[in-house]
Amino acid sequence: MTVREILEQRERESLAPYAALAAESKGRGRPEPERDDRTCYQRDADRILHSRSFRRLMHKTQVFLQPEGDHYRTRMTHTLEVARIARTIARALCLNEDLTEAAAMGHDLGHTPFGHAGEKALTEVMGVEFHHNEQSLRVVDKLEKDGEGLNLTYEVRRGILCHSGPEIAETLEGQIVRLSDRIAYINHDIDDAVRAGILKNEDIPHDLAAVLGETHSERINTLVSDVVERSRNKPVIAMTPSVEAAMLELRAFMFERVYRNPVAKGEEVKARRIIQELYKYYLEHPEKLPEDFQPQLDLEGMSRVVCDYVAGMTDKYAVYKFEEIFVPTGWAIR
Question: Helix (H, G, I), strand (E, B), or coil: what is residue 61?
């Protein structure tokens, strides 16, 4: 037996009845031979990890735009936290950790520069809704590898798409990623807001702290443990109603005190202008797009290709291109 076959046999013997088995995957959009050393879900996680779009997450905003300090979350550190929370839940429930990890690693690949400010900016300038979960799927399907895409399995692709929005993934592993994303960002955004001086830990409403815990680690432990206890041996990923209600109230509190806070969002007007001006510029000057985007103009249409290029930028690169295009450079008489 190959290593892959041994791993697939181990999944059949050890995972829960509701787990997604690698050997029973619905497969890839383009059929390709299996590898002897890894399951299909392991290969997907590796493809995402080694992609250019994953590396760019390191320089994309989570909540605070270009914060002064090295310890604020970026889109990459958020992704890693989601992956760890999701794997912890999957392991406790005897579900497929490799599928869970792959979907978690890819769930935010489509995020714009400057976080949700960039998402709103593209929605405004394009006149159609821009959704980062849909863009994440587009990244892995069409934009990576110079238009080839990563050719991921159906289950990983659904986990990526359904981590937000109205659709729910068919697999329990995909549902874990959706919930883990929320657990991660609510709690680490509190941590960053405290670091920024926007919140104090004691500002968390006492009734919510009584249910979820007083500290960052206590809250995550409460939420993860509750998901595990509520979902064990069941064909659904769920939470105790009182704990879920507390989490949703905490999320609403964060929107009121942090996500709409002028300190956290004070630079959003500038960020939106950068995104929108870049979009308009490349729409008027498509010849300035990189060479690897040029062939897509006839296939996908100008607006779609320009959106893909701008959405894929990091915060730093968007600022650099804006300055290069719109800000006069200094000169000196020699």
Answer: strand
Please, which residues bridge with residue 74 across strands?
61
Question: What do you get for the CA distance between the two ends of the chain, in Å?
Answer: 73
The SS3 assignment for 149 reads coil
Domain borders along the chain are 3-326
**CA pair distance 283, 246, nearest whole angstrom:** 45
Two tokens, residue 27: 């497969």
Q: What are phi and psi of 80, to 5 degrees?
A: -65, -35
Q: How far apart are CA 95 and CA 36, in angstroms?
A: 22
pLDDT tens digits for range 299-312: 888 999 999 999 99
Mean pLDDT of 47-63: 93
- Give how far Cα 294 sits from Cα of 84, 93, 148, 289, 308, Å: 38, 46, 15, 7, 12
Query: Distance (Å, rounded) from C-alpha 254 to C-alpha 251?
Result: 5
- Token pair 């090295």 is at which residue? 70
- The arrangement of secondary structure in 3-326, i.e. its CATH architecture, is Orthogonal Bundle (1.10)
